[in-house]
Amino acid sequence: MFLTYLAIASTSVPSGIKTAYEHRKKEALVTLDRLAQEQRAAYAIENGTQGGSKPAAIPAPVRVDVAPAKNPSAIARSLHQLVQARNNATGISAAALGLLTMLVGTMALPILVGMHDPISLLIIAFGVFEAWKLNKHAPVEMSGPHELLPEFRQPTSAT
User: What is the residue extent of each domain of the chain?
Assistant: First the structure.
């Protein structure tokens, strides 16, 4: 059952990466827009163009730092702690922590996706349940000894 879940979870990794990238990009654009509006307002106040019909220009490029989520889930906090530990580790321990982080992230991804899309969580649960039913232990029955057919018997000597 573990391997079945791992196979299901690993198929959702590319969509999870794409979703995380799009979410991060959206957050950056929202932050950039908010900072640009703040800078326009500050520039307008400085130059006395507040309330005018001509929009104020942005005088300098804006550096955007996207902050992490304000209320991360327990899974996200655990992953963050693993990443921090991996960043502090060196050599083989860094590789082992990196693999552990990838495994935990892969295992948590379907559940994190399922929080936003309950239908996919139901599909995964159904798939794991069916795999569990197919792979449960089948009892082996043994009976015997059985007699061989007459043409396969060893000839016995009569005394």
Answer: 12-67, 69-134
pLDDT one-digit tens code per residue, 98-121? 788 888 888 888 888 788 888 988
pTM score, two decimals? 0.43
Tell me the C-alpha distance between 156 and 159, whole Å. 9
User: Rounded to whole angstroms, how far apart are CA atoms 23 and 116?
Assistant: 13
Distances (CA, A) of 9 to 21, 78, 101, 124: 18, 18, 14, 9
3-state secondary structure the chain: CHHHHHHHHHHCHHHHHHHHHHHHHHHHHHHHHHHHHHHHHHHHHHHCCCCCCCCCCCCCCCCCCCCCCCCCCHHHHHHHHHHHHHHHCCHHHHHHHHHHHHHHHHHHHHHHHHHHCHHHHHHHHHHHHHHHHHCCCCCCCCCCCCCCCHHHCCCCCCC
